[in-house]
Amino acid sequence: MTTVAAYAAPAAKAPLERTTIERRAVGEFDVLIDIKFAGICHSDIHQAREGWGEAIFPMVPGHEIAGVVSEVGSGVTKFQVGDRVGVGCMVDSCRECENCLRGEEQYCLKGMVGTYNAVGKDGQPTYGGYSEKIVVDENYVLRIPDGLSLDVAAPLLCAGITTYSPLNHWNAGPGKKVAVVGLGGLGHMAVKIAHAMGAEVTVLSQSLRKKDDGLKLGADHYHATSDPKTFEELAGTFDLIVSTVSAPMDFGALLSLLRVDGALVNVGAPEEPIALNLFSVIGGRKTLAGSMIGGIRETQEMLDFCAEHGIGAEIELISAAEVNEAYERVLASDVRYRFVIDTATI
Ligand SMILES: [Zn+2]
Ligand SMILES: [Zn+2]
After folding, report:
1. Nearest ligand, CA 52
2. How far is the CA of 111 from the centre of ligand 2 (A)?
3. Closest Cα to residue 114, out of 139, 92, 138?
4. Residue 247 — very low, low, confident or very high, per pLDDT cuts 50/70/90?
5. Candidate CATH numbers 3.40.50.720, 3.90.1150.10, 2.30.180.10, 3.30.479.10; the one for domain 160-290
6. pTM metric for this prediction
């Protein structure tokens, strides 16, 4: 076991504070990673505040991890000391079910092991990236290509793959009209990635406040959802809409913007169930779908794609001591577009 410094929430809704945690000894197939940067995902806040139900405390959040390998177990074949690596939302899964076997470990039938707020196969709670080091089985570690700086690569491990996977699955590309709902941490990555895939990209945001940013990030068009004219003008337009918003929305109105056979894919989810008139999908043979992160193989593909296209997240680098303030700013949508903790400050 190794004692490492970390930032943890001692209890639900309590501010995060500096503490120490134990990391397991490096096992045969484990990689020890010196964490350099950890992104702050909105779901860190949901979990630290028990917004998604009962959680495990103390909690060290963080599932957008970028660092450098500092030790490998005797059986490790994929990584060497000095390699630049990342860890996303999961650190293990059953490896035997049909979903694991086809590389979609995020949909493991026995449940993936979350990077934090979960219990590992050793029976111990998992602790995330707001810490100096982490020990992870090599099969759940990603390679960060040389072309990507570690700080802007960190958010790709959740925000990047969460948006890449549905864009990839629903074939965003040349000749396709893609809309991205919401221009936050997830939305700004969706815009960059969809643009790099060659799609014609429209941002649908509540207001036009971030229009200049959106166009700079790669959007071709930008419309306000608060303006009823948007829905008249864009009716029946899109092949694919990726919604990154977790606030309640008019799903019927969004579905009306799809072409025949179009899909509305949610990567954000309102906390309350929605009421929907199913004629919104019946007329036009439309799909209302969801998508959650991506498998390990697809996450690696996403990192390679981002390196090839020079895509990183837009970040505000902060020290660990600023994390509580950063949480408040995320809740107020006051971040462009992802906070990343410089873990050297822990
Ligand atoms: Zn996340
Ligand atoms: Zn499985």
Report:
1. 1
2. 7
3. 92
4. confident
5. 3.40.50.720
6. 0.97
